[in-house]
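Much of our argument rests on the idea that a fold can be written as discrete symbols. Part of our work consisted of pairing the sequence of a single chain with a tokenised description of its backbone. We regard such an encoding as a compact summary of how the chain folds. The amino acid sequence and the backbone structure tokens for this protein are reproduced below.
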Amino acid sequence: MLKRLAITAAACCLLFSFKGDPSKVLPPLKISANHRYFTADGKPFFWLGDTGWLLFSKMKRAEAFEYLETRRQQGFNVIQVMVVHSIKEVNAYGDSALTGKKITEPKVTPGNTFGKDDEYDYWDHIDWIISQAADKGLYVALVPVWGSVVKEAHINPAQAKAYAEFLANRYRNHSNIIWMNGGDVPGTDSLRTWQAIGNTIHQVDPAHLMTFHPRGRTQSSTWFHNEEWLNFNCFQSGHRNYAQDTSKKDLNYGEDNWRYVQADYAKTPVKPTLDAEPSYENIPYGLHDVKLPRWQANDVRRYAYWSVFAGGCGFTYGNNDVMQMHKAGEKVGSYGSKDPWTKSINAPGARQMVYLKKLMLSRPYFDRVPDQSLIAAGQGKRYDRLIATRGSKYAFIYTYNGRDMQIDASKLEGSKLKATWYDPRNGQITVIGTFNKSKLLKFNPPGEKMNGNDWVLILDAV
């Protein structure tokens, strides 16, 4: 509580004392030489995102400052946020995004003020938040307009082009911008409109990376993999469990989000890919029936490690209360959200994500590949699944339920291997020992076999 009060006090001091644009220049994200990962200033950049979808529309300055600062401290480096979530969008100060609900007429007032709360418009507020994010080393993945808005307002390609030109011109000089076209919608739904947005932004602002956020259980590569404007792929593995994933329209991968990575990894031209929306912490299975169980921290960890070890370039976390910025005193929100975001922002899964980022950056990064041949026998299905990734001198193998492992480490360098257990809950390491390299090494993780007793086996060449 004292920590939160300190953050809020700092935010209030900033609001009343700050008179200029605080934005520091972050190196724009680039695609690595092998086209699998991101770099920033030539250094490895592991995408650890959060879905702060309603940040621009629901948060006042002090709240936005607190949110960004908390996520910074927790190790996140990308915030995914909607620019226009509703055709009649109004922010927390009562400022409208559009004039007359027309996407071609953003409601912009002259100038750009970073003074008192009532001296700026909807777009100035976005500018301020983006600048604050940059000051904290955070990148912002902007969704120009949510898919439901495009359908509801019947936004055509010409209107989309005009709006995209406005956005690209306004934000191309912010170094911490990433473009996330789409918005929870299939690419075939208003295809020409999404193409207009993607092509226009890419033409006006080619310096910033762009992807497409699709509907649940689909991936951007299905429609746009060969488009010049799509620099990297992402997918939404969605919120359904195995039993609920029965739709004939989708891929029916269930909770196996690693399958989307595997599919994208095999495509040419080679492009990075990541899970940009897995099941959120504290959201009901399948979203809509609030009486069903809710996804917990161990589920979040499973989605994260499965997708990254399968070859993903990062991972985006989400929390039911935080993604909609549910506030104390509000009625029950979407999908049964009750807790305020100020509480849920410190949920266990959110605090544990940084250990994945630290692990991935602890070894040589750009030569890492998924390699399931490391698993000598019994890779397993569903919750029994083992997922492996390696460099030339190290390997990581993840188990969700603490099952026994049989490992073939012959591809690693050296004649001996140092083995350790890595705990995804707290980042602690337990040394197992040093072994002669062999085609069959057996390991038994700590604890009893049960869902959520997840571990990473680390093998380092000696």
Notes: Residues 2-17 form the longest helix (16 residues). The domain at 2-360 is CATH 3.20.20.80 (TIM Barrel). Residues 158 and 196 are 8 Å apart (CA to CA).
